[in-house]
Amino acid sequence: MTVEIRESDTVSPDARDQVETVLTAHAEEAGHPFTNAPCILEAWDGDTFAGALHAEIGSHWVFVKLLGIAPDYRQAGLGSRLLRRIEDIARNKGKTGIWLDTYSFQAPDFYPRHGFTEIGRIEDYPPGQSRIFFQKRL
């Protein structure tokens, strides 16, 4: 068998769909089907965007993919409100917990204040900084 490996800086929808099909089939065979569903929480002040949280709700855990607050709304408790809201959603759906990652130059002290525990980090990602992984069991 001769398999050619090609490099690309974009993922074609066809290639992405094929990868998802292969991974989904394997997960189902192992008894752990992928059941992720998006959950977007948006915060608006009238017509002004204040922040948002984008999560993926899986079969047992919720992954907070993005949490961002517009500069004029930082330090006002909005991030905490969004985080509490996704926790309520996770609890109501009977999930085990929530996990996420952030960077040392963002707000890594924010998550432990909300009951999250650091479970790992990658140093020098980006150079001179760390990527930090957190979880919270519900």
Automatic annotation (TrEMBL):
Domain of life of the source: Bacteria
EC number(s) per entry: 2.3.1.-
Pfam families: Acetyltransf_1
Cited InterPro entries: Acyl_CoA_acyltransferase (IPR016181), Bact_Acetyltransf (IPR050832), GNAT_dom (IPR000182)
Molecular functions (GO terms): acyltransferase activity, transferring groups other than amino-acyl groups
Keyword Lipoprotein attributed: no
Keyword Ligase set for record: no
Domain N-acetyltransferase: 3-138
Enzyme class of the recorded protein, top EC level: transferase
Keywords for the protein's UniProt record, in alphabetical order: Acyltransferase, Transferase
The protein's name in its UniProt record: Acetyltransferase
